[in-house]
Amino acid sequence: MKIMQKFIYHKGILTLVIGALLNSCSDSHFEDINKDPNRPENVTTTTVLLSAEKQVIDNIRNENSSLRGSQLFAQYYSQNIYSDQSRYDIPRSYSDTYWSNAYKALNNLNEIIKLNTDPATKSIAAAGTAGSNANQIAVARILKAYAFQNLTDVFGNIPYQSYGNQDPEFQALQQEPENLSPAYASQQKIYLDILNELKAAGDTLAKYKTATTFGNYDVIYKGKNDLWAKFANSLRLRIATRIRKQLPAESKTHFDDALAKGVFTSNADNAVFKYQSLAPNEAPLYRATVTANRKDFAVSHIIINVLKGELGTVKVQDPRLPIYATKNAAGNYTGQPYGLPVAAAGLLTATDVSLPGAAVNAANYGEVLQEYAEVAFLISEYKNWDQQEYINGVTASLQKWGVAQADITIYLAALPKADKANVLNQKYLALYTQGDEAWAEIRRTGYPTFLVKPGDIVWSRTVDGKTTDYKFQPLFGEGVPQRLYYPPKEQSVNLANYQNAVKAQGNDDITTALWWNK
């Protein structure tokens, strides 16, 4: 499978790092960047890490898989010209791009591990400010776990690579000899191994909390080992929760262990990749809307109505409304009706509806990998919908977006008590912009229940006294997609393993539920 080849020394990859270092690194680092990238001995693990971080986040939040995929599936956004993706007509080419770019990033992360374990390169890899071999490997393992978790949540069974597990199904990134037709591992095995990877990596970094790894080349945490350890444990809460229905004992073991070892406790712990205001390093949404001058994605009527207090259980205006969305030309917050038929989708123009807010659509937006609000909601769920953790999660989300304390107090006073619906509704609101995780939670829980369903009237339009009701009718499936199609090229370059995966998992279509959701 060609995506499994080495990408690390290609000139096109290393050029990504130049702009990203403008504001975060000293001039001395540019000597490393300007060395010949075609000579492997001149490539440092620090520049590989920076490139890989950007690749991972760029891919998860790219226009096709995020803006035209998970953000629509979560009904945060709605299309106001072409509405096919809103109604789940998903081009298979979207999968090709997401899949290929994910494995490019994973190959880079795996290269960091290789350079830090190979006796011929490990001393060079640990030179300067990069950090110890063990700590570099631990950070790479955490990012690999994060990337693989997102990848399997999109497709299900996938080719997988583990650091410490020599299972024959865990050799997707093998390079010597190059693995061109890797087997697909089951999602159950992947999830369990990811939990073990995060535990091992987090434990390693916790031993050296005051040390730094990769320094300012690490955009997410600026090399702080203690925060990487917290991130590893917090991701375990997410993943353990995802598998609780299928593997309750394993879920509880990891949840309890991660909680005891230390997870996020404030927004200062959030895992965020912050983009820059200068090309080519602007945030993905900015590139898709401002740079490309696209205005065909507006905030959906669902989330606008919830934030206005007109839908859901909170009956006051949410102070995140002017942050999440802009007013239309008439000075109102008006959501684009979700999933209109094509004939009606363009009847409302971009000036009639609310577009994403300025903070959300900023060039230097910080894309969230995971944040404290999510962690608090996970703990609330684990503790049978704990009230205080519920309040902690809502407060953290409001504070993250810069809401004034007076407005936070008013909003908290209007919250209904914690229960399954109320906690998950607030979690949904907090995950705005994190379409990948919101989509997964909708599949796992079935909440929020106020999302549009097939047959629902999404817009009533009156012209010359005649009212037309437009209903939501998916083009494929009966509701929110359960997964995306495998990339078409897998059938030509890795047919036998593709067929085995389909046989084990179910039909290669968007209605086949993933293992953790069966």
UniProtKB/TrEMBL annotation:
Protein name, entry field: Starch-binding associating with outer membrane
InterPro entries, per the entry: SusD-like_2, TPR-like_helical_dom_sf
Pfam families given in the database record: SusD-like_2 (PF12771)
Gene3D superfamilies recorded: 1.25.40.390
